[in-house]
Amino acid sequence: MTAASAAERVAAEVARAARRPRAARALILDLDGTLAPIARTPDAARVPGPVLRSLHDLVDRGWRIAIVTGRPRREALTLVPVPRITVFGSHGLEGAHRTLPRAARAVRARLARLARAAAREASRFPGVRLERKPVGLAFHDRALAPAARRRWRRRVAAWLSGCDLDGLEVLRGKCVIELRPARPDGADWLACVGGQVVGRAAVPLQAVRAAEAALGGD
Predict the structure, then answer these.
(1) 118-174 pLDDT per residue, tens
(2) How many CA within 13 A on the CB side of residue 120?
(3) Cα–Cα distance between 145 and 154 in angstroms, integer?
(4) In this structure, are residues 155 and 141 in contact, taking their beta carbons and an 8 Å threshold?
(5) E strand or H helix at 12
(6) Does residue 185 carry a catalytic annotation?
């Protein structure tokens, strides 16, 4: 299945669900790789203008939209400056008008200590970017060549095996390794978009525009 056909299928499912009697028109979206194409560095990512316009239109039609991202919430708000969209950063741990969960606050000091040691590890591999998050720590290794990335991944795995990771979890992505508090509670952001959630999935970039077209003027 091509990306375009997958987007059309998801958009059709969203539109069909939204037409159900008393359905809550709600979308929960990721940011990077969904609304914003993956860029060489996180700082280079941008949400295309047509996608922002589609989000504006969907909100104007009564959709409840939430964005849940691994980025800090402040960064996400800058990338998606759309009023009436609720944005949750740090994988849902940073929300609007609420303090961090107690478990997240408890590990922040330990994450700060790990960050100092992590900087030493990352300095051995030019091209690795260390990102301090409000409740997390990420190593971005997209700039490394494949062989260097494999060596880096082996080294960081050995380093992490000797660290105190109690209360933390390690997320390994294609071009990022992230430390964050274990098992974040997503109940708050699910409730925020209106109780009855139509679906929870990563919607391809094209699907946001296609959903707008599929719904027409209703």
Answers:
(1) 899 899 999 999 988 888 889 999 899 999 999 999 999 999 999 888 888 898 988
(2) 5
(3) 14
(4) no
(5) helix 3-18
(6) no
What is the residue type of 111? L
Beta bridge partners of 125: none
Please name which of 98, 106, 76 lies closest in space to residue 187, comparing C-alpha atoms: 98
Q: Which residues contact 155 (CB under 8 A, 6 or more apart)?
A: 121, 124, 125
CATH architecture designation of domain 3-99+185-215? 3-Layer(aba) Sandwich (3.40)
CATH of domain 102-181: 3.30.70.1020
Q: Which of 30, 141, 164, 166 is catalytic?
A: 30
Torsion-angle region of 178 (φ positive above 0: left; ψ -120 to 50: alpha; else: beta): beta
Sheet holding 86-88, edge to edge: 26-29, 64-68, 86-88
Residues making up the chain, counted from first to last:
218
Task: Reduce the secondary structure of 28-53 to three states and give it as a string.
Answer: EECCECCCECCCCCHHHCCCCHHHHH
Every domain of the chain and the residues it spans? 3-99+185-215, 102-181
Instruction: Provide the strand spans (E) within 89-184.
Output: 129-133, 136-140, 168-172, 176-181
74-109: pLDDT as tens digits: 999 999 999 999 888 887 777 765 566 666 667 777
- For residue 95 the two structure tokens come to 């929300």
CA distance 203 to 35: 8
